[in-house]
């Protein structure tokens, strides 16, 4: 029996060949990668692959159409729609349980849910006073919980067995981005505040400081020290086409740096179009990273060599989310409108959401160049 029960849970049709009609742009799939079947109906906010413990690979996507969807990704790269669940507001974030049996969803409807994939049932486990921006599952030696952050300026910890909230940490402002890799959590808020929390025993604030980036941050991703296999720093992306690499305890102050990305090459007059960095993902094997931006491109980077490994062709709409699978051989990324150019920039006939899968293991290998 399939992990997700019977095929009655599936959504949409297995084919999306008619989805794009005659109005699809030639650049909607600029890299000619494999398309995910039956994509969301509105902008894609988040993508998350299943943990390595599962024998098969599954992909979860949250969308502004209020739905969270799950696909099985076959070895060929083809996708099978498996199941979906809904909120009463847009989905802003998703995460998996460590055993791969559950998915956690955070929504603009101010609630978070746990979705049991075997029964295809979802129940509410969290409530905030404003939309929930991020959700993460933590499996610690002495506790397990879901961590939610919200625009109500709080970080909350929840026991999913009882749906009880067990701890609240007040934030200085609304949460704009967060990432968790036990025992470290990083939260970025409005007014460019960054907070690092240690999660061992009783979670507590470790450090608070101002962002190294001058403009509003959009995304953050914790990275591992490949020798100790523990979290050691994070990459922070902003609306100003820039990423900061920040070590929590740098051996050398110069280890922390920023770099420009998702910008046009500029004109003879020196003017340059600058785009938001919408998501950052670290490769689970190589430790290199991917960024996706409002310029409709993805780029692969080696932070240690401080070099760019690859930049994609330009898609006809922004790239809004990305993730690597546990083995690091599939890069998933979503193209959908992010409203960065307002309603005037949206063409509903042309700008349909898409999710693509790219074979990527070799492209993410570290550069031979040293910084």
UniProtKB/TrEMBL annotation:
<dbReference type="GO" id="GO:0005737">
    <property type="term" value="C:cytoplasm"/>
</dbReference>
<dbReference type="Pfam" id="PF00400">
    <property type="entry name" value="WD40"/>
</dbReference>
<feature type="repeat" description="WD">
    <location>
        <begin position="277"/>
        <end position="311"/>
    </location>
</feature>
<dbReference type="GO" id="GO:0051301">
    <property type="term" value="P:cell division"/>
</dbReference>
<keyword id="KW-0131">Cell cycle</keyword>
<keyword id="KW-0498">Mitosis</keyword>
<dbReference type="InterPro" id="IPR015943">
    <property type="entry name" value="WD40/YVTN_repeat-like_dom_sf"/>
</dbReference>
<keyword id="KW-0963">Cytoplasm</keyword>
<dbReference type="GO" id="GO:0005635">
    <property type="term" value="C:nuclear envelope"/>
</dbReference>
<keyword id="KW-0539">Nucleus</keyword>
<dbReference type="InterPro" id="IPR019775">
    <property type="entry name" value="WD40_repeat_CS"/>
</dbReference>
<keyword id="KW-0853">WD repeat</keyword>
<feature type="repeat" description="WD">
    <location>
        <begin position="125"/>
        <end position="168"/>
    </location>
</feature>
<feature type="repeat" description="WD">
    <location>
        <begin position="84"/>
        <end position="125"/>
    </location>
</feature>
<dbReference type="InterPro" id="IPR036322">
    <property type="entry name" value="WD40_repeat_dom_sf"/>
</dbReference>
<keyword id="KW-0132">Cell division</keyword>
<dbReference type="InterPro" id="IPR020472">
    <property type="entry name" value="WD40_PAC1"/>
</dbReference>
<keyword id="KW-0677">Repeat</keyword>
<dbReference type="InterPro" id="IPR001680">
    <property type="entry name" value="WD40_rpt"/>
</dbReference>
<comment type="similarity">
    <text>Belongs to the WD repeat rae1 family.</text>
</comment>
<protein>
    <recommendedName>
        <fullName>mRNA export factor</fullName>
    </recommendedName>
</protein>
<keyword id="KW-0813">Transport</keyword>
